[in-house]
């Protein structure tokens, strides 16, 4: 569905217009993507507890899903292949459904406190089992699925977005600025469920159910 446009809006409609606005990258930036993992990339993956997984279906509809586990949860098979375990979730599997139609995937790996990130692009497939699943057990949970990523591009991204947002600056944090997760669920997802029940569900015991 096309968004109605205000007459005062000026839309960028081609690559030349875009480059006139943002400019072109210097050569070392344009050439920084690599086809294989470097030892420094492996060290980053070993320290990262969180990954954002971006996918798109055949019709172009998109999804970005977080994946998190103890640091080093991403399993490195070789310089061109990594695997990300799947843990219990809401069972929508939006990204996985996308990958069954379109195997292309984009990943961003974060390390808390670091503004720079590791980016990996490639193609992916879903594995229901493999011997290395035994190496991805957390809290006695062996994954039922894993995302196997065939690396095509690897590069590190600078920290400007994180610095602008003050993401890792505790003085900028305001977790109570909006409604709690329980109130959001009550309003948008489960209006027939008592708020007290939802607050209990999303309360301190929620962390005890992460691998069930």
Class from secondary-structure proportions: alpha+beta
Major β-sheet profile: 7 strands, antiparallel
The CATH architecture of the largest domain would be Roll
CATH hierarchy class name of the largest domain: Mainly Beta
Please tell me the overall pLDDT: 96
Weakly predicted, low-confidence segments: none
Number of strands: 7
Radius of gyration: 20 Å
What's the number of helices?
A: 7
What would your notes on this structure say?
The protein has 212 residues and is an alpha+beta fold. It has 2 domains: 24-164, Roll (Pnp Oxidase, Chain A); 174-209, no CATH class. The protein is 24% helix and 25% strand. It is built from 7 helices and 7 strands. It has helices at 15-22, 27-30, 39-47, 94-101, 160-165, 181-189, 195-201; strands at residues 50-56, 62-68, 75-78, 81-85, 104-110, 117-127, 146-157. A 7-stranded antiparallel β-sheet has the order 2-1-5-6-7-4-3, covered by helices on one side. It is globular, with a radius of gyration of 20 Å. 17% of the residues are buried. The mean pLDDT is 96.
What features would you highlight for this structure?
24% helix; 212 residues; alpha+beta; Pnp Oxidase, Chain A; single chain; 2 domains; seven-stranded antiparallel β-sheet; 7 helices
What order do the helices and strands come in, and which of them pair?
Layout lengths: L14 H8 L4 H4 L8 H9 L2 E7 L5 E7 L6 E4 L2 E5 L8 H8 L2 E7 L6 E11 L18 E12 L2 H6 L15 H9 L5 H7 L11
Helix pairs in contact: 6-7
